[in-house]
Prior knowledge:
single chain; alpha+beta; NADH Oxidase; 4-stranded antiparallel beta sheet; 42% helix; 18% strand
Amino acid sequence: MTAQTPPRTAAPAFADALSAALDVAVLSPSSHNCQPWCLARMASAPARRAAAALLGSAEDGHFLVLAADRERSLGALPAHALEMELSCGLYWRLLQRALAAQGWTVARSRPAPSGLGLPDSWEPLCVAEFRRDGDPDGTLDDLRALARRRHTNRAPFRPEKVEPALLAALARHRGDGLPVVVRHLRSWPERSRFTRFVAAHGGRDFAHGGAWRETHSFIRWNASAADGFTLEHLFGPLPPHGRWARRLALAPPVMRALSRVGYPRLLAGQLAAVVRRSPVIVLMGLPVAEPGLPDTLAAASALADYWLDATAAGLVLHPVSIVIQHPDLRLALQRRFGMVGRVFFVARLGRPAAAFPASPRRAPAAAFRTL
Length: 371
């Protein structure tokens, strides 16, 4: 008896595929969980005509524009501009993977200029044409489940080493633009040097008035918020008295006063103690000091794939962005570990010792417009 081949599932209509992809993409990470991304579907005849002209394609395609919402973006430090592009690029990569799983792939793309009819607060980043390219491959549910499992874990990690073969597999993610350099600090001397660097400099943001006020504005005091982070996302479960003590200490006027007596150094020491027990520190960089937008988005794609593959392997990440948000610190870190160009991501990597709550998310449609 001959086994019958199950019938193939045709690719859904683009609007239906996009709706499902938005549900996945919204699970992307972002600095301070600010979720700065926004997306427009160019559906009207004038909008399609404008997008097609930019891409040199026919007007019968399906066009999307990725943008950053200035009203949701961080801006207290110059380095935040790159962080916002990376955050939007992470969203863009997850959206593309979710669409590709349903048979829709990018045919053409390029940086998006202004003048596309987007809301005033939107800064256009990329315009792309999507076309049907085969049938769904059945991986959308797996991708959705993996994206839901992926979240930042600030708890201490288990002490066991991460297998070199697994790290080598993760390091293959190099992006489609300038090659992304992935460096894993595994040896005790390397990790000790990094820990000392964090202990010496990890309090900089707490002592920087503008940076800390902006960070503090993303702390949410109840679990019903759709963005930012609660104290539990930062510190894990807390008793009531612990919540109130931290709420008082983290208030910008109090932090400013405590900075005069060394409180940021204490916080840096606490972060360094967690870093010291981490089996791997990952540094990712580009070979140029000032990457252009296409290379930044390609680097974000590499980071998204790295993070998802790490999650699939049972690993978690905790970004330690404070050491690269100030140019002098970033350059000092790069000299210490022989990294040229621009390091754009630094994080602890390991296996979780405790669960950490997932960050809240806005509704998938909140950042979407049809033009």
